[in-house]
């Protein structure tokens, strides 16, 4: 009886845990999470799906190399689709740390809080779909983890060419507030520069002189 009671308890516990993994349009497992995926429900302003677009979007440190001062990035910073397009996204995390792909500004009656969300806790891959409305609009795509967007993980999804370029998209638009790396040219700075210059000039001469004496 005791063994039966323990088995029932464990079974109910597992069922409860599994139920908690799929509430509020969220699917979660030990590698990541999908929230507000939509593969078949049309926005109210769409009569049918205009096109099906398959996007592979990679995230990670290596994709930020092209952008000075950035640490993380997506492998692309902009995607263009037609109004009422169905987008099948394959999200790949190339890092061993957590990254997200979030799209904001979608209609709340289809996407709670206007959000589509993919998340990976480390290296891996997730797939999910969404259907965009017909309006000409630019949607923010980013990672919402602290400082990841500020460090470069920000992009834009344009429907029908978009209505604007969002600010601070690496390689596309100017930042709202540009980073400044100005040198404070004090007397000590000039002294360090002079010492480095002398070392750079004198060292090769000494090396050549020593080689000449020993040969």
Notes on the structure:
The chain has helices at residues 2-20, 187-214; strands at residues 26-28, 32-35, 52-60, 73-74, 78-81, 86-93, 99-104, 115-120, 124-131, 137-142, 154-159. It has 215 residues and is an alpha+beta fold. A 7-stranded mixed β-sheet has the order 1-2-8-7-10-11-5, with no helix packed on it. A 4-stranded mixed β-sheet has the order 4-3-6-9, with no helix packed on it. The longest helix is centred in the last third of the chain and has 28 residues, at 187-214.
Protein topology:
Elements: H1 2-20, E1 26-28, E2 32-35, E3 52-60, E4 73-74, E5 78-81, E6 86-93, E7 99-104, E8 115-120, E9 124-131, E10 137-142, E11 154-159, H2 187-214
Parallel strand pairs: 3-6, 5-11
Antiparallel strand pairs: 1-2, 2-8, 3-4, 6-9, 7-8, 7-10, 10-11
């Amino acid at each position: 009886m005791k063994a039966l009671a323990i088995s029932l308890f464990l079974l109910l516990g597992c069922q409860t845990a599994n139920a908690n993994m799929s509430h509020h349009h969220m699917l979660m497992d030990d590698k990541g999470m999908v929230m507000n995926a939509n593969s078949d429900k049309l926005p109210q302003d769409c009569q049918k799906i205009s096109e099906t677009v398959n996007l592979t979007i990679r995230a990670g440190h290596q994709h930020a190399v092209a952008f000075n001062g950035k640490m993380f990035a997506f492998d692309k910073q902009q995607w263009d689709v037609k109004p009422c397009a169905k987008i099948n996204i394959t999200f790949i995390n190339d890092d061993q740390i957590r990254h997200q792909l979030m799209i904001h500004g979608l209609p709340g009656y289809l996407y709670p809080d206007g959000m589509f969300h993919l998340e990976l806790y480390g290296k891996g891959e997730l797939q999910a779909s969404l259907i965009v409305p017909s309006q000409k609009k630019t949607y923010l795509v980013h990672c919402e983890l602290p400082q990841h967007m500020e460090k470069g993980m920000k992009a834009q999804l344009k429907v029908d060419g978009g209505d604007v370029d969002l600010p601070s998209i690496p390689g596309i638009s100017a930042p709202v507030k540009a980073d400044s790396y100005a040198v404070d040219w004090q007397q000590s700075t000039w002294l360090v520069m002079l010492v480095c210059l002398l070392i750079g000039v004198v060292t090769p001469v000494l090396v050549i002189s020593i080689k000449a004496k020993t040969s």
